[in-house]
Specification:
Blueprint: E1 2-5, H1 20-28, E2 32-36, H2 47-52, E3 56-58, H3 61-67, E4 70-72, H4 79-82, E5 90-93, H5 101-110, E6 113-116, H6 131-148, E7 170-174, H7 178-189, E8 193-198, H8 201-210, E9 215-219, H9 222-228, E10 234-237, H10 252-255, E11 263-266, E12 287-290, E13 293-296, H11 306-327, H12 329-335, H13 337-340, E14 343-346, E15 349-350, H14 353-360
Parallel strand pairs: 1-2, 1-4, 2-3, 4-5, 5-6, 7-8, 7-10, 8-9, 10-11, 11-13
Antiparallel strand pairs: 6-14, 12-13, 14-15
Helix pairs in contact: 6-7, 11-12
EC number: 1.4.1.1
Family: Belongs to the AlaDH/PNT family.
InterPro entries: Ala_DH, Ala_DH/PNT_CS2, AlaDH/PNT_N, AlaDH/PNT_NAD(H)-bd, NAD(P)-bd_dom_sf
Length: about 350
């Protein structure tokens, strides 16, 4: 199969879909791999490294799309890429369709096969291609939140862990999945006063056992969230409904009850955001303020640490990419329930239930 990895062109997206190690594995299986020149540089992988393992370098994104049967990338195609996608071409990447009507229509019109990292699902309902980036984003949400709590960055000027004689910051984490757990670990490690809210009592029991003792757990409800945000210095939105739009847990009305200079980090922004006042931002312009509350809603948080993120992501995606290349997408999805659940749009038809419901009801 002819496999292509273009350079990501989304704002400050520095990751790359295939590492030299991944190219090497695919070439050894007999496949041709096209890499756009410079695609891996921001992740620490030079063109020379790709050439050494058998990649064919192409100078432009247009040539990569034109030459390839399968595209392996990181983020969803953006508007300049729409016209490059061919009928029957397989795209293997993150899509997050439910929150992006324009992308969904473009992919339907393209006639391509869209297999989304975020909905590949194991029998235990875990999401193996979302987990590594959720781990990075969860940890980074605290790193970024702590930064924007600093007064010069618009925050209230509180140190996350406090110091002897001064109370630490209060951190509220909404969601006890991978993102929320990693965020709670990081915040607790810095010495913050952490509260983690989730709707699953069994999950909260587990987290109470494994998380540090400065993490308290709460059963989540609208009332509980409304009360907790009043005193929170940092709120992390970490809720995921697989393939669907995220629910709005913090409403616009709640903002007026929050402290001025508090910070909200919406890690669910790829799926529409779990704060009613969220809108996507970029690493170039990451924050905005409403009612005195700082919003950080960067849609590709892991793109800021591309070396770590690329290695973590491709460790997970490569085995699936090899399956797709060796068997073709139809046979691979017949053989693998995990991959079959990754199919979102196939040749003009929405096939993933949550995406279909989002647009067709």
């Amino acid at each position: 199969m002819k496999i292509g990895t273009p350079k990501e062109i989304k704002n400050n997206e520095n990751r790359v879909g295939l590492t030299p190690a991944g190219v090497s594995a695919l070439v050894k299986q007999g496949h041709i791999v096209y890499i756009q020149e410079g695609a891996g540089v921001n992740s620490g992988f030079s063109d020379e490294l790709y050439l050494k393992v058998g990649a064919t370098l192409l100078p432009s994104i247009e040539e990569v799309y034109a030459a390839s049967d399968m595209i392996v990338k990181v983020k969803e195609p953006i508007e300049p890429e729409y016209r490059l996608i061919k009928k029957d071409q397989l795209l293997f990447t993150y899509f997050h369709f439910a929150s992006n009507a324009g992308l969904t229509k473009a992919m339907i019109d393209s006639g391509a096969v869209c297999l989304a990292y975020e909905t590949v699902e194991k029998a235990d309902r875990s999401l193996p291609l979302l987990i590594p980036m959720s781990e990075v984003a969860g940890r980074m949400s605290i790193q970024e939140g702590a930064k924007y709590l600093e007064r010069p960055n618009g925050g209230k000027g509180i140190l996350l862990g406090g110091v002897p004689g001064v109370k630490p910051a209060k951190v509220l984490v909404l969601g006890g999945g991978v993102v929320g757990t990693q965020a709670a670990w990081m915040a607790a490690g810095l010495g913050a006063d952490v509260t983690l809210a989730d709707i699953s009592l069994p999950r909260l029991r587990y987290l109470s056992d494994v998380l540090p003792k400065n993490v308290k757990t709460l059963v989540s409800s609208e009332y509980v969230i409304a009360e907790e945000v009043k005193t929170a210095d940092l709120v992390i939105g970490a809720v995921l409904v697989t393939g669907a739009k995220a629910p709005h847990l913090v409403t616009a009305d709640m903002l007026s009850t929050m402290q001025k200079g508090a910070v909200m980090v919406d890690v669910a922004i790829d799926q529409g955001g779990c704060f009613e006042t969220s809108r996507p931002t970029t690493h170039n312009d990451p924050i905005y303020t409403i009612d005195g509350v700082v919003h950080y809603c960067v849609a590709n948080i892991p793109g800021a640490v591309p070396y770590t993120s690329t290695l973590a992501l491709t460790n997970a995606t490569l085995p699936y990419a090899i399956q797709l290349a060796n068997l073709g997408w139809e046979k691979a999805c017949e053989a693998s329930e995990e991959l079959r659940k990754g199919l979102n749009i196939v040749k003009g038809e929405i096939v993933y239930p949550a995406v279909r419901e989002a647009f067709l009801g």
